[in-house]
Specification:
Elements: H1 6-16, H2 20-29, H3 34-52, E1 59-66, E2 72-80, H4 83-86, H5 89-105, H6 117-128, H7 131-134, H8 138-156, H9 170-181, E3 186-194
Antiparallel strand pairs: 1-2, 2-3
Helix pairs in contact: 1-2, 1-3, 2-3, 3-9, 5-9, 6-8
């Protein structure tokens, strides 16, 4: 069994934001392997977030972000369960990161289930007209279309987008925040303004 050092616990804490005892337990369970411990904590965070997802989130923040030069601005509402959490630095940093994400990658919807049925049908029809797709058998076409729609979701749906230059998605970022903060967190809505753009 590996010896768990204070430096290893500190490193894991910095990477995940999890509590000290959770980090120590994860390192003990993974024989000191930091990468496996990160994966274990992430898995547990997802499980913890799933348990909290039914809880009502009516507190939170409406925040704004104006990009340098004043050409792009975002208003975003992110909810949590209590006003105490809404005032914490960690929650406010999350909201700001989400606003910057919206400013930079201009998603159209918060989640996939918000995409109007007609917009989804139109995109599916557009993708289906591609000669490379149309020449395939029907069951293969469906798989290709599903894959292309998932790729499109990463462009137009906030929670499906990759967060900055990281491998994790915005949904994973929010899930990790739920696990760390201990409350349900929901991105309720946002609006993005770009100078001279028609909405």
């Amino acid at each position: 069994m590996a010896t768990i050092t204070a430096d290893a616990v500190k490193d894991l804490r910095e990477r995940t934001g999890a509590g000290m005892m959770d980090c120590k337990r994860a390192l003990t369970e993974t024989d000191g392997d930091i990468d496996k411990a990160v994966a274990l904590l992430r898995e547990r965070g997802i499980a913890a977030a799933a348990k909290k997802s039914d809880r009502e989130a009516r507190e939170g923040l409406i925040s704004s972000y104006i990009h340098t030069g004043g050409r792009v601005g975002v208003l975003i509402e992110v909810n949590c369960e209590t006003d105490f959490v809404a005032r914490t630095e960690q929650f406010q940093a999350l909201v700001r990161s989400l606003a910057v994400q919206v400013a930079g990658l201009s998603p159209l919807w918060v989640d996939v289930d918000e995409i109007p049925a007609d917009a989804l049908a139109a995109k599916r029809a557009e993708l289906g007209q591609d000669p490379g797709v149309a020449s395939k058998p029907a069951e293969i076409q469906e798989k290709i279309l599903d894959g292309q729609l998932k790729k499109w979701f990463k462009e137009v749906v906030l929670l499906e987008q990759p967060f900055r230059d990281e491998e994790r998605t915005v949904r994973e970022l929010v899930t990790e925040a739920i696990a760390t903060i201990g409350e349900n967190i929901q991105v309720r809505r946002f609006i993005r303004y770009a100078l001279g753009e028609d909405k």
